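Quick look at the format.
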Amino acid sequence: MTRTSSLHSGRRGPIFRTLALCAAMTVASTGHAADTQPWLDTSASFETRAAALVGQMTLEEKAAQMQNAAPAIERLGVPAYDWWNEGLHGVARAGQATVFPQAIGLAATFDVPLMGQVATTISDEARAKHHQFVREGAHGRYQGLTYWSPNINIFRDPRWGRGQETYGEDPYLTARMGVAFVQGLQGDDPVYRKLDATAKHLAVHSGPEADRHHFDARPSKRDLYDTYLPAFEALVKEGQVDAVMGAYNRVYGESASASQFLLRDVLRRDWGFKGYVVSDCWAIVDIWKHHNIVPTREAAAALAVNNGTELECGQEYATLPAAVRHGLISEAEIDDAVTRLFTARMRLGMFDPPERVRWAQIPASVNQARAHDALALKAAQASLVLLKNDGVLPLPRNLKRIAVVGPTADDTMALLGNYFGTPAAPVTILQGIRDAAKGIEVRYARGVDLVEGRDDPSATPLIEAAYLRPSADSPERGLRGEYFRTPDLSGTPALVRTDAQIGFRWDRGSPTDNLLARGEAAPGQGIPNDGFSIRWRGQLLPPVSGRYRIEAAADDGFRLYVDGERVLDHWANSDRLRSDGVDLDLQAGRAYELTLEYYDAERDAGVRLGWRMPGAKPPFEEAVDAARSAEVVVFVGGLTGDVEGEEMTVNYPGFAGGDRTDLRLPATQRALLEALHATGKPVVMVLTGGSALAVEWAQANLSAILMSWYPGQRGGTAVGEALFGDVNPGGRLPVTFYRADQAMPAFDDYAMEGRTYRYFRGTPLYPFGYGLSYTRFGYSKFRLDAHRIADHGTLKVQVEVANTGKRAGDEVVQLYVRRLAAGAGDAQQTLRGFQRVHLTPGERRTVTFELDAQQALREYDDARGAYVVRPGAYEVRIGGSSADARVRSRFTVEASRD
């Protein structure tokens, strides 16, 4: 097999003609199969084969192949392929998969090797799932090998709802974690890619979500090159990422998905990018409809392709044949774009015998393997950040009762964030605490809704399996579910099983994913992504007599029957999880026939069945009572992906369109926290969420604070272990935590001044890189191998780190550099190295960093229009956070004599 070289940059018509000629020469020298289908000739390069295949296509067929849902071309043996797949922190929207901590939580590990292990595991599962889909004849969305991850936008403002998808606010940390993720996804085979990773969204894109389809970002060139571009450059040059995704918004007046400056000048000319560019979904529509850059669909499609976007997520490229006829683009440009795309597919092994492709041998059994679950737990443990501890943690083993209170304690969504797959057995934080408590009584009360004014079906406890049975003579507990391929319960069920509880939440596109019950429906069981229905039947067994409140909720329609009487009926589409309830007098000892019918129309799906028993106190009062009866209170609250995320249509107090308008905890939770504190019991706060929270009241009044992010399928286990000291928290903040009264720059202003630890001049609540431990670390024997270096030289830095406490733990050793003569608008300091080291009590280790002046000290110079290394005095700082310089030393950079 010949290792391929990729297409070079520039106008691409001549490239295609050269490759087509090479293909013809190859055909002349090979056997009969190559004569008829030269694109299957494995002795030729991937580019040559791709050009030969594209040369057989009509213009209309080529245009169709440039859209994410590319149809089959049966006469050429080309199968259908959808380029759209997600794998931000696990294979997403494709059924069962291991779910790791959300990207921001992975960044909090500050552990590059661990990130590589996580990405390798994701790509193992992705490959296994893809080949299983192919064996079943499935070629749809979320079933392929081209993954639209990672998101390496800079989390410049804590209000941005999608910041949870990123690796935080620092370009260096983002680059290091991003490169490791890409390399883990794409594999190390010299011939075949394991997957295609996609660096998104190039390049100045971080909110507001409500404006993303029409705003024009115009940062200074210095901010662009010093903050917004470095991670993308690293993924292209070091990670060899195969794909880059454009953004919705404009940058300097051009659509980011059709920008000559970003895609031609920077990406291909300056960085030498050899892969392909994909638009964000329906971003090409924005070019003519919202940005008004061109007047028609044809012109928008032509502009995007001419400026370097080969693949569209959307349907505007269907107009490319008309654009050719109107003279807006040449067919040669389209040929070259399609050739790039088929080169990528061939490099993934899609047109070669499976036995030739190393990655095609990964068995389906690897999906959700025990080792993957163990890695998810390890990543969750490493992501936890201890923000405060007055000595209450670790919790002692001689406690008799703990109260666990709060809206995200028993919520699976608090584990997942967004862009997630289906964990086999997710462990909520409540369950994790119960497991770790080992005999200590744990009393739970939800207390309040996540946010004020939200119709929150999860506020009602699910009906537990103990009170449900499929039939009078069944030994099982739960309800018998019949899963139909149709939206109206017609036909033969594709799946019949017993579900212990009815508590389901499916991410868009993955309705076979059960997030709460243990027995999932696998993709091969034929449940479609949309337009399905389920009927659950069985008996309800009330434990006490009295008046019950039974509530059902669904996205989309539901009907509930009790003893044959229809008591709830909402058989209609809904854009969210909609709930309703009925009050019924039920008697203990009697079995009531129960039927719940549900259907999903499209996109997100979910259904719940809950109740409140007779005599139940109001949730707030129940929580305070639980606190009074306990020795320690663990409050679990914060945010979930239901309120922060991507372009939402539902707004709540403190949230707008998925972004945040208030950095504090929601008002409901603040009120409950104050009531819990007033009981006089020590309160430990565990926060869930994907962004910085202004929790200065908690910092001043509570006993301990632990940030858990969205910790993935084993997040509850990790939190429980950390609270009881079975693991020692060692994560660090990848973002700055500000105070609630801190005046922030305008959200839509992309200037960096006043943002992130590099340019924020005030005192934060918690600085970037911050995190406590159950042990202590000391720094000594700090040395530089030189105190004067050339502007193209290197500097070796060493420091000895010792665990001076009584517990084993992890220290994240962080190296920052600052220029001593920095002026107004310059960064105060910049992270240029970090290592996470594990030390046992008394253990010492020498940590070494090597700084390359051309990378570590470069700054963009507006006057020169290039990066420069300025001569003069610099300072190296090493410590446990951006505000914790344990040791420091100066050195001088001398200008080269050319």
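Next, a different chain entirely:
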Amino acid sequence: MPIDEKTTTTGRPDRKRPGPALELLVHGVGGTTPERMLGDPRTVLVTGDRTAGIYRRRDDERGERRSSIAEPVPEAYCWSNLTSGNGSRALWLLLLPFMVANLAHWARPSAPAGHRGQHVYDVLVRLLALSLTVLLVGAAAEVTMDLIAWQCAGDTHCTANKSWLAFMSDGGWWAAPGRRLVVGATVPALLTGLLWWLSHRTWSAYESASPPPGAGTGDGAASGAERPVLSLPGFWYGRRLVARLRAAHTAAGLLTPASALWAAAAAADSGGTLAALGRVLAVPLLAGWAAVVYVVCRRGRCEAELDRGDDRWAVRTLPAFALGVLLLTAVHTAWSRPGWTGDGHLPGTGLFGVLAAAQGVLIAALAVTAWRLQRTAGGEAPPVLKGLAGPVVAMLACAVAGVFSGGLAQRLADWLDRGATPGEGALAGPPVELSWQATVIPLVLLTVLALALLAAARSWRLRKQIVTEVPGMYADEDPSPLEHPNKPRTLSIAGAVSRAQLTDFGPTVLGTAALIVLLLGGGAVAGAWITGEVPGAAARGGPGPLPALAQTGQALGSWLMGAGFVLLLTMGRRAYKDASARRSIGILWDVGTFWPRAAHPFAPPCYAERAVPDLTWRITKWTEAHPGGRLVVSGHSQGSVLAAAAVWQLAPGDRGRVALLTYGSPLHRLYGRWFPGYFGPGRLAALHGDVDTWTNLWRQTDPIGGPVGLPDGHGSEVDRGPLKDPLCYGRTAERPLPSPILGHSDYQADPVFDAERRELLGRLASVPVQRGAAVSRPPADPPDAAG
């Protein structure tokens, strides 16, 4: 066993005892318990809290003195409660479009630092994110102001048996159209306030952690403009940008109902004092929108240093100004106007068509910018979708937001009009753009179904090919059980491998679906603008079965959009009561909320802005307390991404004293291909240059993990695999019962895991302790273990 040089309290080297060894375990998506990670029901919280903390076995609470290369002290960092702790967080499903839009920011292609295209790309994504806020707040305004307050409250057929609308329909003070609209405007305003409160509260709870002093201050293997972005000290501390964007989006949410009120009042005022006041109110209204766009476009993320600035004028003044404009507009709209009656659609509902067209233009511009950035990416292998992953993800965000807004409006209109097809009953219904968008939903679903069948056929063909290769995977076993290629065992192994490779087919499915959605969505907006009627009415009198098909498509699409929205709410309710469902939903957030909120401040909070500083602090302080110690950061699945991000944040001298053990890791397969600017081959090669002791384990049956995929000359030093899965084909003396197919789980069950960890610790033992390291003073109660 290699003997480390350990410094005693007298400062003299002690060669009689090896330095302590620590294995810091980081779990993956879905979370787990510290008892399961450590294999012991008796655990103790060493440091941290119940939301995210580090645990040890009770017997290892002060175990540094007993550690060895064969048996390091295990520690478990549990972060699952950051994403799926209680049932109320299932309501974050409603923020899904915001989360997906935020991912579009990080999916940009790799490009040289300071390239102008990066700034243009970031601005386009932030503008697209702003349009989503306006769209969803506008959908709430459409429901409460147009459908309920304007149309239904003014129609006796609709208000029948709706006692909750009596105060707006009985001829009283609130029955005036302007006052009904003011009542309806309170809901989108309160929704905006709720989004602001959630964003502010989650920042304080999850994302306010600062990195340790000196973290990310060195260049490491890369220097200058080519320094990996994740090694910058301000990467996991985006407080200033989130505060600015939160103020801008809050102001936009308040200005949306204010604009609807102003448009309705302007349509009713043909002249006189009220019309003049309306023209005066237009000035602060337009100034507010201009300020919102300016704040969104002016400043991006500052990652080279901790950005602790406080833009008080934007953070405090802009939302207060927008609230004041809303109140003034509400007073102006509520003023008595004899003879004003509500009829048809609320003026200004053409906003949805304008937003859809603007989003299409932004996505097209984003695609052009991403294509130009990809051309400057150098000799690296092209990422997924030839660098167009960002525009595809942005299109997905717009599609989900469209389903949310359209589904809510369509279902409520159907209920208010007592089952009539929206737009063809007694009420005017929602804007015609939403009805046309509903009509194309069945076509989108048919496209997705066709792509799913294509993926299934591809998997079936691949399984037939792999069946013939399974015997070669177990050539060291008795060949008799392997002679029949159609045995259920062989088919199960081949099926697991083929299904795991479906992950690599995902980009094709998403890219094709995004293109179809873009084309159909553009056609829907064009159809609404050309005809000005809902699809069923526009096709009436057309040739053959066209009218029936149009009406059926509109009714079916309307039902599907509403069903999708209701399904989301049902999933949230079930997750509130069912812990297993809550854990499944948490997996979605584990993947989607890894990145900071760089584009949309109302997205679910970034857990990595708490988890990465936690890990960096722990590694830094443990290595300072134990200069001769050896530390292996052991990350599974998403935990491997957190581990790599934490190691990137270490000071250069500390990176060489830490080993990295990853398994089931999506570092290259998912993150490297979808987010090449941050986890591309060049970035991972730079990390390997800083952390020479790195091993990655992978299986062919794993649908998430895979090889790191470093350039030639690097990858062979990191990757170990593919590991056998199952460990044995048949029954052996060591394993008399059939071995299970593990796929993405239980990498520790493979004997290779312990051997590779032991090798990493042995290689660390030969790393000399740097001069100037803190002197280790092992007291009776080590401070790092006392918590």
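DSSP finds 27 helices and ten strands in the chain.

See the schema section for token definitions.
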